[in-house]
Amino acid sequence: MKAVKSLFVCLICATAAYGQKVEVAGQLNSGLAKFGGESAASTTTMHSLGANRFFTLNPYGSRFASSYGMSVQVQRVTRANFLLGAQAGAEVLRNRVHIDGVYVYGPVYSSFIEYREASGKTILRNDFINLYPYFGYRVKAGAVDLDFNVGPELGIGLKSGVKGEATAADGAVYTANFERSDPETDIRARVGVTAYCRHVGLSASYAHGITNYLRGYDGSNPEVYARVFRLGLLYRL
């Protein structure tokens, strides 16, 4: 967070030095997130760890789940309507994968594993601090300021967890619920647009992850990357 604070201070100082306009805004956003790449799964299975404990084989879902966050941004607007800004905030990204079966151990002390058809879902949740330095251009349309922006986004992983539930044909319910000890630092390419009318703004953006979450795994070069769509409501001071 020191880097973010320093970046904001530099923007304000540069604006003051050149007599250009500085804008500060707060944002609440919601959206949809999923994983892309050849190893992202729309359907997977749950497996027993024994003692009524289960895990989801592939929690990197290619199905969308709702996500949400909040941020603050500072941007400099030049006389020629070019933008230089930075945004920092906290965000929860979630993705979904469908469960179509469960592998269950047999009686105690047995090595037999039974497959049972089941239906359910697993949600993988990743909590991030996001840093987004960007540049862009403002188009004036009457009373509306239309800002286009692009830049690299850095998601610093805070924590990660998996929660899943599946129900078999006989009514048996199987759950997976555990924290992951290796939250990712995710680099994404991001593009967005914001429309301001006086103090209120509406934003839409897309972030395309370039960090492979499975880069440390052996065998067949597995690949999954974050895909994030956001809609936001801003208040400009």
What are the main properties of this structure?
mainly beta
The amount of beta strand, in percent, is over 45%
The poorly predicted ranges are none
**How many domains, as an integer?**
1
Main beta sheet, described? 8 strands, antiparallel, barrel
Structural class: mainly beta
| Helical content band | under 10%
Principal-axes geometry comes out as elongated
Count of DSSP-assigned helices? 1
- Gyration radius (Cα, Å) is 22 Å
Q: What is the N-to-C succession of helices and strands?
A: HEEEEEEEEEEE
Give an overview in words.
- This protein is mainly beta.
- It has one domain (2-141, 155-199).
- It is built from one helix and eleven strands.
- The protein is elongated.
Give a brief description:
This protein is mainly beta. It is built from 1 helix and 11 strands; from the N terminus they run αβββββββββββ. The longest helix has 17 residues, at 2-18.
SSE layout and pairings?
Blueprint: H1 2-18, E1 21-36, E2 43-50, E3 53-56, E4 63-77, E5 82-105, E6 113-141, E7 144-168, E8 173-180, E9 185-197, E10 200-209, E11 225-236
Parallel strand pairs: 2-5
Antiparallel strand pairs: 1-4, 1-11, 2-3, 4-5, 5-6, 6-7, 7-8, 7-9, 9-10, 10-11
